[in-house]
What we know:
- The structure is a single chain.
- The chain is built from 13 helices and 16 strands.
- By secondary structure, it is of the alpha/beta class.
- The chain is globular and about 60 Å long.
- 50% of the residues are buried.
- Helix 3 (71-83) packs antiparallel against helix 10 (319-334) and helix 4 packs across helix 10.
- The strands form three sheets. The chain has a seven-stranded mixed β-sheet with strand order 4-10-9-8-7-5-6, sandwiched between helices. Strands 11, 12, 13, 15 and 16 form a five-stranded antiparallel β-sheet that branches. A four-stranded mixed β-sheet has the order 1-2-3-14.
- The model has no long low-confidence stretch (mean pLDDT 97).
Amino acid sequence: MTPHVEPDPQAGAAVKAADRAHVFHSWSAQGLIDPLAVAGAEGSYFWDYDGNRYLDFTSGLVYTNIGYQHPTVVAAIQEQAGKLATFAPAFAVDVRSEAARLIAERTPGDLNKIFFTNGGAEAVENAVRMARLHTGRTKLLSAYRSYHGATSTAINLTGDPRRWASDTASAGVVHFWAPFLYRSPFYATTEAEECARALQHLEDTIAFEGPQTIAAIILESVPGTAGIMIPPPGYLAGVREICDRYGIVLILDEVMAGFGRTGRWFAAEHFDVVPDLLTFAKGVNSGYVPLGGVAISEEIAATFDKRPYPGGLTYSGHPLACAAAVATIQVMEDEKVVEHAAHIGETVLGPGLRELAERHPSVGEVRGLGVFWALDLVRNKETREPLVPYNAAGEANAPMAAFAAEAKKNGLWPFVNMNRTHAVPACNISEAEAKEGLAALDAALTVADRHTV
């Protein structure tokens, strides 16, 4: 695939200048960033105004599950805009109802009611509100290695350092350690030990916090930005049992892991667990128009049969976003995208990444499912010391910055977070494209290797 426009550095400079003059970027020191001016994108690639093309191993922010500019979804948005571009959420609108039906058909268990939001953080906010109102309790438990969004409660639920600046300790959130055998907080040596000790730790946390005070436990089915740590067998089932025993609502956050990312419609399917509430966004419509939501169990939905739910959004179930969701789900069915994601993970990405780990001293561990993978980069494979310190910045983060620069030099746009790089391309990436990405990672890892001991 080649760029659809001739290189135009002057136009790129103008875009960059306007951005720097007026756009305030998230998670950034505004004077220290240099955003790439993007001229276009299609499929698994995007390109700049200088004609440089990049294979996107980030899927945007892990949301372009069917790639950029899929013609079926673009056409569906255009058609809906001509028919009914917008309408208030209190009304029954055909495309909104159809999107809800298609999502409910694919969620596990009895999650048959869909509350639409504009994105994942709002989905988490509303799921938590539902849990609190349903139980009459206030406290929330979430894992340290997690990300749940940047709105008020969602950022307090988040476990990574992005929480720190906004954490007022007033949101009723208690954090606990979820399982992660490679960097076990429980001194476990096997998955079975890690699972048992993590569940005991959660039980102890609940006991000391007071089970009767806890409204919900929220977990990413497979944590995303925090490192793509696959729960050990039995863990999520164990959490489900604990929640049932204490009357605690189980919320599974599938904002990143859902809609084919792990090779299933939802990652919870890998573990045969049905939550009470499931949050989604991102891949539901490949990010073409902002959309998220909460899939709600029959029991919790019944709480609001006669009692008004005190929440809503102006653009809940926006027709353009729902049209994109309907078209995306249909594309995923017609083109067998979910099955393809599983196949690529099993036959190309998984084996290819593990082969890289064997040859590169900087790769400590490979973990993942489908098109959802992480390489844990280390200074020493024996000690497992991370390649850069936790939450490193500036000179301390130089090894990861050098790795990322080398990847881009080789035509790969990498997902980099702390001491990890994630391989999270579009779910419909071709085998040839996936192998192209592996080759670029191979070259970039030679730079990371220089920082090993």
